[in-house]
């Protein structure tokens, strides 16, 4: 990543540094100052950007991260988002991490002894992912306490779409939980929506709580399952013209929809919630969302490594920039984790069941 004392390092490293400089100068979502591009190592250049989502991935890490967005991978079934103290656990499916005692809201401060405060989400996931059966040690910050856990990786099937029928106010409603926007998410969700319609669901709750996002194309495809037409999202960047992504043709349910969000709803999940709100297709219920309005792409480098860089910023169909502020729900609702009842889901069901007049 930077010039070394051996001849091989002096020959190979500048090529990588130059590739990173070129990518940032030509594709980064905002202008990069010359003094940053002139820094002599990849790590210094990236650190100077102050962007937690732009990172250098060594060859092994790149191979692991590529698996994380596929339909199956070796991991612990956890999703993370950056925070000042480390990486906050935003999503937690049934799997190794949950069995080991990890909770949503925990902050991962160390992975196998490596501090996470300076790691991007992608670099952190590269350390968490690995061959099924192998262990990973996590140090968690929970309140004021530090908790050490040992988690054994397993094969994780993705994407996960949980769907069920709920009886409420004399009718049956579909409750659909989408945990991430990995490859194939829209295909699985479409199948579940059709099944709920056949079973007589009168309306749908699309639960995007604890969903840290994923692939942009899946956000467009998922939005298209609820919208016949309209804008899903627009993208802007320093080196590309404004790009508007529209609804894709095909199946779109006509059932009434409420979107359920919380403070860990981020990225692609925020795109979907905003698209359904701005197109007057759904009511958004819950908490203010995370506020990640940046889009990343991965450039493979000649040494087998990769540069994940932010290439665009997105705006909602109404033109809103969610960066930092997040999406404000139309109806506030918070689940009380001390009770067995899901209070936020109850609010969403009441919104669905109320008379349209």
Task: Characterize the structure shown.
The chain is α+β, with helices and mostly antiparallel strands and 357 residues long. The protein has three domains: 10-50, no CATH class; 73-157, PDZ domain (Pdz3 Domain, Roll), CATH 2.30.42.10; 161-296 and 311-353, 2-enoyl-CoA Hydratase, Chain A, domain 1, CATH 3.90.226.10. The protein contains ten helices and 19 strands. The chain has helices spanning 7-27, 34-37, 42-49, 59-68, 96-99, 121-128, 185-198, 216-223, 268-278, 343-353; strands at residues 55-57, 72-75, 78-83, 86-92, 107-111, 114-115, 135-142, 145-152, 154-157, 161-168, 171-178, 204-207, 231-237, 240-246, 257-261, 282-286, 294-300, 306-315, 331-332. The strands form four sheets. Strands 3, 4, 5, 6, 7 and 8 form a six-stranded antiparallel beta sheet that branches. A six-stranded mixed beta sheet has the order 10-11-12-15-16-19, sandwiched between helices. Helix 4 (59-68) crosses helix 6 (121-128). The longest helix has 21 residues, at 7-27. The radius of gyration is 21 Å and the shape is globular.
Keywords:
357 residues, Pdz3 Domain, 2-enoyl-CoA Hydratase, Chain A, domain 1, six-stranded antiparallel β-sheet, 10 helices, 19 strands, 28% helix, globular
Task: Chart the SSEs and their pairings.
Elements: H1 7-27, H2 34-37, H3 42-49, E1 55-57, H4 59-68, E2 72-75, E3 78-83, E4 86-92, H5 96-99, E5 107-111, E6 114-115, H6 121-128, E7 135-142, E8 145-152, E9 154-157, E10 161-168, E11 171-178, H7 185-198, E12 204-207, H8 216-223, E13 231-237, E14 240-246, E15 257-261, H9 268-278, E16 282-286, E17 294-300, E18 306-315, E19 331-332, H10 343-353
Helix pairs in contact: 4-6, 7-8, 8-9
């Amino acid at each position: 990543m930077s010039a070394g004392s051996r001849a091989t390092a002096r020959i190979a490293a500048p090529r990588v540094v130059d590739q990173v400089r070129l990518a940032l100068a030509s594709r980064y979502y905002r202008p990069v100052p010359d003094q940053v591009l002139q820094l002599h190592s990849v790590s210094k250049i990236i650190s100077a950007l102050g962007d937690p989502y732009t990172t250098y991935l060594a060859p092994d890490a790149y191979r692991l991260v590529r698996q994380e967005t596929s339909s199956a991978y070796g991991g612990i079934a956890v999703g993370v988002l950056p925070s000042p103290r480390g990486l906050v656990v935003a999503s937690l499916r049934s799997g190794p991490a949950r069995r080991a005692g990890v909770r949503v809201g925990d902050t991962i401060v160390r992975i196998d002894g490596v501090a996470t405060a300076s790691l991007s989400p992608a670099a952190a996931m590269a350390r968490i992912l690995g061959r099924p059966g192998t262990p990973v040690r996590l140090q968690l910050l929970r309140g004021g306490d530090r908790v050490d856990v040992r988690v054994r990786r397993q094969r994780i099937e993705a994407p996960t779409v949980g769907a069920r029928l709920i009886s409420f106010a004399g009718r049956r409603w579909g409750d659909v939980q989408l945990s991430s926007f990995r490859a194939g998410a829209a295909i699985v969700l479409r199948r579940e929506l059709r099944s709920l319609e056949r079973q007589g669901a009168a309306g749908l709750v699309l639960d995007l709580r604890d969903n840290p996002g994923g692939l942009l194309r899946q956000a467009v495809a998922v939005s298209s399952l609820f919208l016949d037409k309209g804008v899903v999202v627009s993208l802007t960047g320093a080196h590309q013209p404004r790009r508007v992504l529209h609804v894709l043709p095909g199946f779109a349910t006509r059932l009434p929809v409420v979107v359920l969000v919380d403070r860990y709803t981020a990225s692609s999940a925020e795109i979907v919630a905003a698209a359904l709100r701005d197109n007057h297709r759904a009511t958004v219920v819950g908490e203010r969302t995370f506020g990640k309005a940046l889009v990343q792409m991965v450039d493979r480098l000649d040494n087998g490594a990769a540069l994940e860089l932010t290439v665009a910023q997105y705006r909602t169909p109404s033109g809103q920039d969610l960066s930092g502020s997040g999406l404000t729900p139309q109806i506030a609702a918070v689940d009380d984790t001390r009770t067995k009842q899901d209070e936020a889901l109850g609010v969403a069901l009441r919104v669905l069941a109320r008379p349209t007049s």
